[in-house]
Amino acid sequence: MEIRVGLVGAGWMGKAHTNAFNNALMTFGPEAGKPVFEVVSDVSEAAAKNASEQLGFSRWTTDWKEVVQDERVDIVDIATPNAFHYEVAKAALENGKHVYCEKPLTLSAEQSLELAELAKQKGVVNYVGYNNVMNPANAYIKDLVQSGKLGEIIGFFGTYAQDSLLDPSLPITWRHINKFSGSGALGDLGSHLLSVSQFILGNIESVNALSKTVIKQRPVSPGSTELADVENDDLIVILANYENGATGTISSSRIAAGRKNYLTYEIQGTEGMVHYSLERMNEVNVYFTSDNSADRGFRTVFLGPDHKGYSAFYPAAGIAIGYNDMKVIEAHELLSAVTNNTSYTCDFEFGAQIDQTVDAILESVAKQNWVQVKNKGGVTV
Amino acid sequence: MEIRVGLVGAGWMGKAHTNAFNNALMTFGPEAGKPVFEVVSDVSEAAAKNASEQLGFSRWTTDWKEVVQDERVDIVDIATPNAFHYEVAKAALENGKHVYCEKPLTLSAEQSLELAELAKQKGVVNYVGYNNVMNPANAYIKDLVQSGKLGEIIGFFGTYAQDSLLDPSLPITWRHINKFSGSGALGDLGSHLLSVSQFILGNIESVNALSKTVIKQRPVSPGSTELADVENDDLIVILANYENGATGTISSSRIAAGRKNYLTYEIQGTEGMVHYSLERMNEVNVYFTSDNSADRGFRTVFLGPDHKGYSAFYPAAGIAIGYNDMKVIEAHELLSAVTNNTSYTCDFEFGAQIDQTVDAILESVAKQNWVQVKNKGGVTV
Amino acid sequence: MEIRVGLVGAGWMGKAHTNAFNNALMTFGPEAGKPVFEVVSDVSEAAAKNASEQLGFSRWTTDWKEVVQDERVDIVDIATPNAFHYEVAKAALENGKHVYCEKPLTLSAEQSLELAELAKQKGVVNYVGYNNVMNPANAYIKDLVQSGKLGEIIGFFGTYAQDSLLDPSLPITWRHINKFSGSGALGDLGSHLLSVSQFILGNIESVNALSKTVIKQRPVSPGSTELADVENDDLIVILANYENGATGTISSSRIAAGRKNYLTYEIQGTEGMVHYSLERMNEVNVYFTSDNSADRGFRTVFLGPDHKGYSAFYPAAGIAIGYNDMKVIEAHELLSAVTNNTSYTCDFEFGAQIDQTVDAILESVAKQNWVQVKNKGGVTV
Amino acid sequence: MEIRVGLVGAGWMGKAHTNAFNNALMTFGPEAGKPVFEVVSDVSEAAAKNASEQLGFSRWTTDWKEVVQDERVDIVDIATPNAFHYEVAKAALENGKHVYCEKPLTLSAEQSLELAELAKQKGVVNYVGYNNVMNPANAYIKDLVQSGKLGEIIGFFGTYAQDSLLDPSLPITWRHINKFSGSGALGDLGSHLLSVSQFILGNIESVNALSKTVIKQRPVSPGSTELADVENDDLIVILANYENGATGTISSSRIAAGRKNYLTYEIQGTEGMVHYSLERMNEVNVYFTSDNSADRGFRTVFLGPDHKGYSAFYPAAGIAIGYNDMKVIEAHELLSAVTNNTSYTCDFEFGAQIDQTVDAILESVAKQNWVQVKNKGGVTV
Ligand SMILES: NC(=O)C1=CN([C@@H]2O[C@H](COP(=O)(O)OP(=O)(O)OC[C@H]3O[C@@H](n4cnc5c(N)ncnc54)[C@H](O)[C@@H]3O)[C@@H](O)[C@H]2O)C=CC1
Ligand SMILES: NC(=O)C1=CN([C@@H]2O[C@H](COP(=O)(O)OP(=O)(O)OC[C@H]3O[C@@H](n4cnc5c(N)ncnc54)[C@H](O)[C@@H]3O)[C@@H](O)[C@H]2O)C=CC1
Ligand SMILES: NC(=O)C1=CN([C@@H]2O[C@H](COP(=O)(O)OP(=O)(O)OC[C@H]3O[C@@H](n4cnc5c(N)ncnc54)[C@H](O)[C@@H]3O)[C@@H](O)[C@H]2O)C=CC1
Ligand SMILES: NC(=O)C1=CN([C@@H]2O[C@H](COP(=O)(O)OP(=O)(O)OC[C@H]3O[C@@H](n4cnc5c(N)ncnc54)[C@H](O)[C@@H]3O)[C@@H](O)[C@H]2O)C=CC1
C-alpha cells in the first residue's frame, strides 16, 4: 500500500522525516506501507524547491493550506517551528488527514488537548515526534522497570542539557520568544526528557520549579549591536512527584558548557538501578541487587537484537545506531499505524500529557511553589 | 613540638583520625608538630582498650569527661555519633582545649553557632572533619572556579548517594532516630556535599526540598520480627539558590542501588564546566569553551603534583590517593593550625553554616515551600 | 545524472549498500548523482526477489553474470562472501563497469594486485568497502596525526575484537574455511583495523604474528553432533613496524567475551596521544602535551560539524551517527567519483595493500618469525 | 612482638615502606608484630638524617653495611636503586636477616636465582616489593580466574605506560644506563605488569619482543647542552605464550603521552572477560557469558569488603584505597611472615621468575626472534 506524504516545513526535521520514511521502508520492509513523497511546502520558496529535488517530492508549494487540503495526501507531516503546529494540525485533522507532528505538540496544554480530542473524533492516526521514546535503549529500560527487575521504583533523576545557546553572540531567534516557542530549554529539550520519563514511569503528579535566564539579551541579528530580550528559560530545574510514588528531579539547559546532547537520567528502584545518557546512545547501565555481592556492579549493556527496535538495523549487538535511527523506528511505527492499524505510544494525548506537565512547571516557576499537574486526558478543557 | 591528642570515640573515625595524625607526620614532616596519642575514651571498654593497644594511646578510659579535663591533652578529638558532639565539644572548649570534631558539628544550627561563638571566645583551634574539602580534587575545582576560568558560575548540580541502607533487613540504628542523628541521608551524606558546594561557591540563599522515607520500618535487631519506625529521610532532593547567583539541585540518598560512594557534582559556568565523582576520586573532568572547537571536549585530569595537597603523597600524577588521604591532609592542616597558627577552612563557623543550610532544608520539607537559609556567622543566636 | 547500480549478493551488506546509496542522495544532495537500482542478483532466488521488492530494484536474477554484462548497469556492487569477490570484480572490470566491492578485496594479495592493475587499465572507479576509513572519527584522527599536533608518531596499538563466534555450539560456516575466507578473525575483522591504521599511518613494513584457534571444531549444522574442523584464527596478535618509524601491536579476535564491536586503537606521538573505540563511535579522546600542566588530560571530543563527513547528518555536535552512516559517506564518495571524477581513498590499490599486509601476517604465523610486507603498488605480481 | 627494621635507601620508596609498616600496624592490628624503626642508611647524609627525624628511626648512617650487620635489626629493607639490590640483599642474607627488597629483585635472572637459593638456605623471609600483587583488585581477578568463572583462559593483553620520561629535556639518570637499571621501561614498569600476569596466570613460556629508544640522547644535567646516550628501551612490545596455553601481548612505555599510571590489562576466557586499569584503581570490569543475554554487559565492580585485603581499610565498598595501601598490605603480609611464619606470594623465587622473563625478553629483542623463558625455580644456575 502506498502512503502519500505531504510535508509542511522543509528544514532540519523535514529532511529527517523524509529520510526516515525512506529508511523505514528499506529497514523494516514493505508490510507497513510504502511512503510516497507527494508534496512539500515551506514558507521559503528555496527551501520548498530544494527539498522537492533533493528529497524526491513530486510537487512543492509555499502555501501549507494546499497540503492539508490535497486529496492526494494521506499523512500531513508537520515540521515547522512550534508556533505553527496547532493551526496546521487542526486544519489537517479537519480535512481528515493522518497527522505526524513534531514535538512539542503545541504551545499550550489547552491547544494540545483540543487537537487530541479532535483526532479521536476523526479516527485518524495522530502522532507526535517524541522520537526518544522509540530509542531501543529507552524501550529496554521501560521493560526493566515494568518487569519488576528493579523492584519498586523510588526515583527518577534526569537532565537534558546542551550548550547550543551558550555563546551570547548568537542572535535572538523564535526559540527565545514565548509566543513562538512557548518556553525555552523546557519546551525544546526538557519536553524530550519528560516524554521519556512519562513513557517509562507514567504521569507526574506535582512539580516545583526554578528557572533562569542567564543571557538576558541577544543581538537582533548576527553581529548587530541592537539587542532584544530573551523571554524564556536558559536553564530550568524541577522537583517532581510521580503518580506511581516515585520522586526526583528534572532539569534542562541550553547553556551547559560541554554538553552536546546530554539527555541523561537514572531510575532508582528498591532492587536495582538503571542509568543512561544519549551521548553514549548505545549503552545502558543497569545494576541488580540480586547479583552476588563480590561480582556486583553496573553492567554496561550494549544495545543489540535483544532490545526492541534494534534488530531491523543490525544482526549483532554493539553496532552503533544513531539519532536518525530513532526517527526511522518512529516513521515505521507511524506507517504501520496507518496501514495496519497497529497501536503506538506517542499519540496526541501523550503529547498533551507532556504539555500539561510543561504548563504546570511554568506555573510553578511563576508561583514559586508546588503545582499539581492537571493530567486530563483526551477531553476538551 | 608535641601535640597531645585525646580521642573520644574509638570507632571507624576514631581509628581513621589516629591513623591520619600519624601519616600527617610521616607524609608532611614534623614542622606542623608531632602528634602524641595521650588518651582514648569510648563508652565501650573493649573499644577503648583495643584502640589503646592498636593505635598506640598511652591511656584509655570509658569516661569522656576525663579526656576533656586532662591537662596532658592539647586537642580533644571527637569521633562519637553525632548526638554527643555538642556536649563533648562544649566541655572541651570550656576547658580551653583545641577541638577536632567529626561532621556534622551538632544536631542543630543553634548548637553549632553556640559552639562557634564559644570557640572564638576561647581562641582555640576549632576544626570540623568535613574532609572532602581537603580532597585535592575539590581544591583544584575551587581554583578553577575562583580563577574565572569557567566564567561566571551558573549552576551547581550534585548528589551524594550510597546504597548502604537499601537492604530493608538491616536493623534500626541511631542513624534512623532524629534525636541521635538530626536527620537521615541529609545530615549524614548530604552535609558532605553541602560542605563541598559551600567551600567552592559560598553560601546557599534559599532552598526548596522534598524528602522520602522508603523503608518505613526496620527490625529492632538483626533478624528480629519486631519493627521500629525510621524517622528520617532515606532520600532527599533540593532546589537551591546560591548567594553568588548560581542555582541548581542537591540530593542525597542512602538507598540508591549500585551507588557506593557517589558524591558527584557538576559546576556550570559561562566559559566552562567541571564535573567530578568521588567514586573516581583521582579524576576531575573539565571543559573550557576557549579550546579550539574541533578539539574541544571534557578533559580527564588526573590529580598530580600541580594540585594542592597531592605532592606530599607522590612525586608524579595519576598515582591514586585514597579516602584516608583526605583525612591525612585534614590532620596536617589541623596540626599546622595548632602549632603554627595557620588558617584553615573547616572551622566551627563553617560547620555551623552547613548546619544552617541543613536546618533550612528540613524546614522546607516540613513547609513544602521555599525557605531562606539564615546564614548567621559566628554569633550566638 | 543517474547512476545505475547492479548488486551482486543481497545479504546484510547488499541491503546496507542500497540503503547507503539512497541515504547518500538524501543526505548529501543530488550533485554526486542519483542512484538507480537497476538489477540485483543472489544465488538464493528468495533473497534476490525479496531484495528487489524491499530495496526497490527494477529486476532480479540468480545469475551474477547477467549483472556484470548488463548494459544498463554503471556500477557493479559486490556484496557476496569473500571468495566470490575476485571472479565477479574481474568480470565486471572486463566489462568496463565501475566496481564497488566489499572488503577484503579478494583472498590474496596476488589477486588483489591483479584487480588493481586491471582497474587502472580500464580507467574505472574501483572502490573497496573499508567503511571505517569514512568514519568522521578516523578522518579527524588522521588530521590530528598529519597536522603534527601529536608530534612525531611513535606507536600504534590496536585491536578489533568481537565475541560473535565465542559460542562453540555455533556451526561451521564459510568464515571458518580458508578457501572461502582466506583467514579467520584477521581477514574479517583485523583487515578493518589494518585499513584504519594504514589510512592514518601508511604502510606497515614488517610483522611478527601469533595466531590461535581456540574452538578447533564446530558442528556441521546447528545442533548436529557431527563436527568439522575450523581452519583459521579465532585470535591473532601481531607486532608491527611501520614505514614511518612507528611501532606497535595489532590484534583481532572473534571470541573475545564481552566485546561487541571493539575496534579500538591508540596512536602515541611525542606531543600527544589519541585513542578511540568504535563501541563509543561518537567520541575521540585526545591529549596534548602543550596544554598547561594542571589542566591537562585526555579530552573527550564528540564528533560534530568540525569533523569531515559529519555535517551532512546533523547541524550540531554530539548527535550520534551510527554504523550505517559510514556506509552513507562511503556511497557518496563513490557516487562522487563516478559522477564528478573526485578522488577517493579506498581504491583497489589500497585494498591490495591491506591484503599484502594480511599475507605477510599469515606467512609470519607459519614461519614464526618476522616477515617483510611486500607493499607492491598497482602492478601485476 | 617487635620487629626491628633497618632501612637502606631513604628515597621515595624508603619513605613509603616506613609509612606502610606503620599503617600495617594501625590498619591490621598488632598480631603480625609491631615494627620498630631501628636504623636508616643512605649514601646521602641529608637523606639519612632527615629520614631518621621524619620517619622516626632511632639511628642513621651513610654506610649500608652497618645496617646489614646490626644485631638489633631483624628485617633489612632495601629501597635503593636497582643496581644495589643484589649486593645489599646478599650481605643481609648472609647475616641471617629477613630481607624486604624493592623490585626488580636484581639486574639479572642469574643474580636473582642466586639470592633465592641463598634465602632458602638461610630460612629467612625473603620478600620482593611487587606491590601490585597485593592490590585487592588483582587478588579478586586471580580469584575470578582460578574459580573457573571465566572459563578456560585464552589471552592476556596488558600494558604499563607512563609519560614520565616523555619530555626530552629531562636529563639522563641511572634509569637510562643499563649497568644501573638492567633495562628501561621493561624492568621499571613492565616488571610490575609481569608480576601481575604471572601471579594470576603463572609462568610465561616464550616471548617475542621489539623495543625502541625514541629519545636517543639526554642532557647530562638539567639545561645542559652536553648529551649522553640513553641505553635502553623507552617503549617495548612483546608477544607472549603462557605455560597454561594462554597467549597475548605485553607492552610498556615511559613516553606514552597522557598515560600517568596506566597499568592496564584484560584477561579473556571462554566464559568471561575481566579488564582493569590502575588509573581507576578501585574498579574491576568483569563480564560473564552466563548472564542472560538482554542484560549482559561488563560489570563495573567497586572494590569492597568482599575483596581480599580491602576490609582492613574500610567497612563498605567504593571508598577509595590508594597506591600506598598496596604497600600497607604488603608490609602487613611481610610482618606476618616474620612473626607468624605465614606464607606469601612475592618471595625471591617469584622475583627471579620475573627476572627470567625479563632476560628472555631482552634476548628476544637482540635476536629478533622467539625465545623460551628458562623458568628455573629456586636453584643456582
Ligand atoms: N524530535 C527532535 O529531536 C527535534 C524536533 N524538532 C522540532 O521540529 C520542528 C522544526 O524544527 P527544525 O527542523 O529544527 O527547524 P528549522 O528551522 O530547521 O525548519 C523549519 C522550517 O519550517 C519552515 N516554516 C516556518 N513556518 C512555516 C509555515 N508556516 N509553513 C511551512 N513552512 C514553514 C521554515 O522556513 C523552515 O524551513 C520544531 O517544532 C522543533 O521543536 C527540532 C529538532 C529536533
Ligand atoms: N568524615 C567522614 O567521612 C565520616 C564521618 N563520620 C562521622 O564520625 C562520627 C562517628 O562515626 P563512626 O566512626 O562511623 O561511628 P562508629 O559507630 O564506628 O564509632 C563511634 C564510637 O563512639 C563510641 N561512643 C559512643 N558514644 C560515646 C561517648 N559518649 N563517649 C565516648 N565514646 C562514645 C562508640 O562506642 C563507638 O565506638 C559520626 O559523627 C559520623 O557522622 C563517620 C564516617 C565517615
Ligand atoms: N564493511 C563491513 O563492515 C562489512 C563487510 N562485510 C563483507 O561483506 C561481504 C558479504 O557479507 P554479508 O553481507 O555479511 O554476508 P551475507 O551472508 O549476509 O550475504 C551474502 C549474500 O551473497 C549471496 N551470494 C553468495 N554467493 C553468491 C554469488 N556467487 N552470487 C550472488 N550472490 C551470492 C548469498 O546468498 C547471501 O545472500 C563479505 O565479503 C564480508 O566480508 C560484511 C559485514 C560487514
Ligand atoms: N614498587 C613500586 O611501585 C616502586 C618501586 N621502586 C623501586 O624502589 C627502588 C628505589 O626507588 P626510589 O625510591 O624511587 O628511588 P629514589 O631515588 O627516590 O631513592 C633511592 C635512595 O637510595 C639512596 N641510595 C643510593 N645508593 C645507595 C646505597 N648504596 N646505600 C644506601 N642508599 C643508597 C639514594 O641516595 C636515594 O635516597 C628502585 O629499585 C625502584 O625500582 C620505585 C618506585 C615505585
TrEMBL record, chains A, B, C, D:
Residues in coiled coil: none
Domain Gfo/Idh/MocA-like oxidoreductase N-terminal residues, every copy: 3-130
Protein origin, superkingdom: Bacteria
Keyword vocabulary terms for this entry: Oxidoreductase
Domain GFO/IDH/MocA-like oxidoreductase: 140-274
PANTHER family (UniProt xref): BCDNA.GH03377
Identification of the protein by name: Gfo/Idh/MocA family oxidoreductase
Organism taxonomic ancestry: Bacteria, Bacillati, Bacillota, Bacilli, Bacillales
